[in-house]
Amino acid sequence: MKKIITIISGVSLILMAACTNTNTGPSGMELRQQMRKEIRQEHSAPVPEQGRLQQEENSGGGAGVNRTSQQSAGADSSLMRLQASTPELEDGLEEQIREPAPMSLADLHRKYPSTFVLSGSEGRREVALTFDDAPDAVFTPLVLDALKKAGVKATFFCVGNRIEAHPDVMRRIVAEGHVVGNHSYSHPNFIKLSDARFREEIQKTDRLVKAYTGYAPSFVRPPYGNISEEQIKWLASNKRRVVNWNVDSLDWKNLNREQVAVNVLAHIGPGAIVLQHSGGGVGQDLTGTVQAVPEIVAKLKRDGVRFVTIPGMLGIPQ
Ligand SMILES: [Zn+2]
d(Cα 23, Cα 30) in Å, to the nearest integer? Predict the structure, then answer.
């Protein structure tokens, strides 16, 4: 049993590597390992590969090979014997009959690798910091201050109704040279929306962003990272990319500076797209994010990492 789990874990790792390694050769892998090693040496935080996998599965941005269900697939035989004493459900298990499960985000990334992006090239020592749910009146200005001080340009995924509520902060994001991505108008879970409503969420925010930047963003980050195959196809037909992330700071859990910095630095590698937030809900505290910016930037700069925006990393228009 233990051996089976080990083999499955190995396969998961290979799958994981295969699907995050879109345009890399051995040099990309080496670079990534080297960068991680350097960061681990300086950072006291343990960097378990397993933790990374688990985190990426949870975040929806990663490979999504579900280890937990694979491990439980080999449930011990005495349990199965006990279950066999119960009559079977006539038409099969709930999971087989209920509406067909939509493709997982990992499947969608594999099927549409150039449209549904989780990271940049592992062959370049570049990292993109991204901040979601902007603008707000409390944390976005503080994140902007921290980025200005650090001399870093980032990508802000802005929510349309927040742009309407905080025009001054929006102007500041643009004036300070950051890039803006479309993060919907009202932050709904896209997969629950009708086609018409989904398109309206995108187009309304396009118009709002364009009023400040002069461009409608060429890339979208769906709220919660969630999106359906049909929605990806529609965006692709409109020459848009979907940009999620492969490093999740988990800062929305009100983490402190050290926790945010460790979550980012322990999982970073060349081509990483880092998810942080610069706007929260009522009661949410993103102080940890604000305070972690200088530490993350200083550490990576010492390692020779360049900070790029999403269009800079992916070679796409703003
Ligand atoms: Zn969001």
Answer: 14
Catalytic positions are: 132, 277
Q: How far is the CA of 280 from the centre of ligand 1 (A)?
A: 9
CB count in 10 Å sphere of residue 163: 24
Per the structure, the count of domains in the chain is: 1
- Separation between Cα atoms, residue 85 and residue 51, nearest integer Å: 37
Task: Calculate how far, in angstroms, residue 42's C-alpha sits from the geometric centre of ligand 1.
Answer: 31
Ligand 1 centroid to residue 157 C-alpha, Å? 8
Angle, nearest 10°, between helix axes 167-175 and 195-213? Answer: 60
Alpha-carbon distances, residue 89 vs 78, 80, 86 (angstroms):
20, 15, 9
pLDDT, position 77? 75
Distance between Cα 247 and ligand 1 center (Å):
15
The pLDDT score that the predictor gives to residue 12 is 41
Predicted model pTM = 0.73
Task: Check if the beta carbon of residue 77 is closer than 8 Å to that of residue 203.
Answer: no
Per-residue pLDDT at 52: 36
Containing structural domain, residue 148? 1-318
CATH at 199 = 3.20.20.370
Tell me the average pLDDT across 182-197.
96
